[in-house]
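Backbone-to-sequence.
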């Protein structure tokens, strides 16, 4: 994948679920196994991690409660592991970035009622795309375009679906893939990272295009890489002991 010389590597994961904390998460595996393999030209890492600073008052508190309903089935360690990933990236010379919603965005989500989770997905997509394009424009600026910025690689890391290059019908507004693919003239790679123990024989897993082509029993102790289409890959880690 790196040999295709992408300008943006957009990584999507399936967040670790509550009750499965003993299985190393996707974030932990990426931090320890794959982050060190990124090339020296990797300048930035955008994390799907919100940072509230209290400036938006009660609206932030309302959204925080709404968000808890969305993440209630996720492992409590998820947020901390994203923070650890950010620190690990910084230690390797990359600049980590988090998402910072505006007060208007908090207000919009807070007033969305039952549609709040969908508005969160839309906001995450919009903020990530905006940040990625800003960073690419800055890194390519001739005034700062000296090594290692001559051919920068930007990595976006978050939940699956946002990075989809070819999003499923009716999910287009939750994916920044097509927008960023166009912004970097096709030098965009979508990579989904999967922990096999998280896969279930039920939606949304069964709706994924690679699901029916992956045999969990064929080589459980090996890493599997599937190419869904040009520029779109799925990497499935080996099963744990």
């Amino acid at each position: 994948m790196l040999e295709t010389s992408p300008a943006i590597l957009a990584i999507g994961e399936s967040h670790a679920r509550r009750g499965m904390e003993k299985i190393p998460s996707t974030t932990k595996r990426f931090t320890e196994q794959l982050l060190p393999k990124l090339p020296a030209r990797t300048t930035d890492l955008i994390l799907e991690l919100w940072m509230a600073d209290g400036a938006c008052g009660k609206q932030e508190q309302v959204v925080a409660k709404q968000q808890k309903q969305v993440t209630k089935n996720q492992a409590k360690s998820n947020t901390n592991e994203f923070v650890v990933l950010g620190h690990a990236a910084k230690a390797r010379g990359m600049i980590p970035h988090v998402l910072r919603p505006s007060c208007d965005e908090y207000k919009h989500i807070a007033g969305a009622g039952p549609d709040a989770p969908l508005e969160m997905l839309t906001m995450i997509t919009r903020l990530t795309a905006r940040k990625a394009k800003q960073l690419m424009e800055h890194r390519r600026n001739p005034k700062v375009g000296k090594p290692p910025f001559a051919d920068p690689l930007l990595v976006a890391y978050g939940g699956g679906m946002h990075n989809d290059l070819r999003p499923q019908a009716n999910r287009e507004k939750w994916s920044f893939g097509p927008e960023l693919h166009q912004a970097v003239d096709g030098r965009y790679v979508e990579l989904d990272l999967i922990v096999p123990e998280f896969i279930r024989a039920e939606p949304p897993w069964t709706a994924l295009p690679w699901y029916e082509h992956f045999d969990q029993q064929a080589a459980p102790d090996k890493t599997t890489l599937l190419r869904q289409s040009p520029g779109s890959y799925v990497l499935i880690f080996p099963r744990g002991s």
